[in-house]
Amino acid sequence: PYNGPSAAEILQKRIEFLSPSMFCFYKKPLNVVDGKMQYLFDEDGRRYLDAFGGIATVCCGHCHPDVVEAIVNQTKRLQHSTVLYLHHAIAEFAEALASKMPGDLKVVFFTNSGTEANELAMMIARLYTGYHDIISIRNAYHGNAAGTMGATAQSGWKFNVVQCGVHHALNPDQYRGVFGSDGEKYAKDLQGLIDYGTTGNVAGFIAEAIQGVGGILELAPGYLPAVYGSIKKAGGLCIADEVQCGFARTGSHFWGFEAHGVVPDIVTMAKGIGNGIPIGAVVTTPEIAQVLTQRSYFNTFGGNPVCTAGGHAVLRVIEKEKLQENAFVVGSYLKERLTSLKEKYEIIGDVRGRGLMLGVELVTDRQEKTPAKIETIHVMDQMKENGVLIGKGGFYGNVFRITPPLCFTKEDADFLVDVMDHTMSKM
Ligand code: PMP
């Protein structure tokens, strides 16, 4: 049993002592106390099916025993900084990660977060190419430090940053985008951005294969191969941000970019890599990695023994429990069931995504695609009252984000859809 302070007491402390910018999803904020695989438990021991997984973070399941064991064992033995001495956990996890990558992508820089990974990736691209301009896609989220906030392309996430050399290309958004699903047309526009908006040379391009924060938007087919061609011609490097769509989540592939038949020059990752513990990584080729030897590059905790021991355990669990296959099978089933819900409720404008990275966009008018923002919040709130947690996102805040731990079962999928159905039927 839980003997700690109540939700109300925690909320009071949060208001008084924590940043006023922190937000809660629910009218009655949820006090989570315990986690087990795809379930969370509140202060009264009430169980919730977690279909958001801490924002696509928990890939193996909450408190997965193998991951916990690896972390605890390493913590008991030694935890220290990453850089100064040898440690087997760091080297072994780097080797294991490299074995999951295509091509010559085999040199790993560990960081503490996705923001750090993307900052580093963009710096490497600038150093390697000698150019400065970076292109990211409108509606993207890449982090909250100076450079990554520049690359992030939604006003809601941008403070008063210097927009230092980042251009935002059209979003190849198959639902709302001007060219529909024609990826090559969006890619042509990006070529125009290079031709008219830069010297003709760029340092790089950064994109997620499926925008997470942006509302589970999968890049239109044909887009990435064409864009990678343009970027290469302009002397730049292609960066794949796999912070949300990596680590087997998309089911059909281990990495999101693989569904597009491209091989990036740099891959960044975080969230799922550690099943909830803070670790991120940048993976690139030996040749590109050389640029960081120009000066000292140092990160006290990036890739520390505890986090890398945990990360390595995550990879083993994904393999042992066939979580990629599960994401494919259960994700396809869940998408099918959500799609049939769309036939029942006018308010569902679009169902999309891959594997266990699914989105449901709510609109008050299917023709106009008017965002149903209030209804989105209402359904989320009611679903929580009925024991199911989902996320939301998208530029208008009207897209459900379904990114559960990859151990999610068909029964869980049924429960989620039944609860969504029930909630919508009462509206
Ligand atoms: N890239 C993507 C695609 C993300 O979704 C996020 C976090 N939402 C980040 C980068 C930044 O990661 P972090 O919050 O760990 O800095």
TrEMBL record:
Q: Which UniProt keywords apply?
A: Pyridoxal phosphate
One GO CC annotation, please? Answer: mitochondrion
GO: which molecular function terms? Answer: alanine-glyoxylate transaminase activity; pyridoxal phosphate binding
Q: Which family does it belong to?
A: Belongs to the class-III pyridoxal-phosphate-dependent aminotransferase family.
Fetch the InterPro entries from UniProt. Aminotrans_3 (IPR005814), Aminotrans_3_PPA_site (IPR049704), PyrdxlP-dep_Trfase (IPR015424), PyrdxlP-dep_Trfase_major (IPR015421), PyrdxlP-dep_Trfase_small (IPR015422)
Q: Which reaction does it catalyse?
A: glyoxylate + L-alanine = glycine + pyruvate
Cofactors required: pyridoxal 5'-phosphate
Broadest EC class assigned to this enzyme? transferase
Q: What is its EC number?
A: 2.6.1.44
Q: Which SUPFAM superfamilies match?
A: PLP-dependent transferases (SSF53383)
Q: What is this protein called?
A: alanine--glyoxylate transaminase
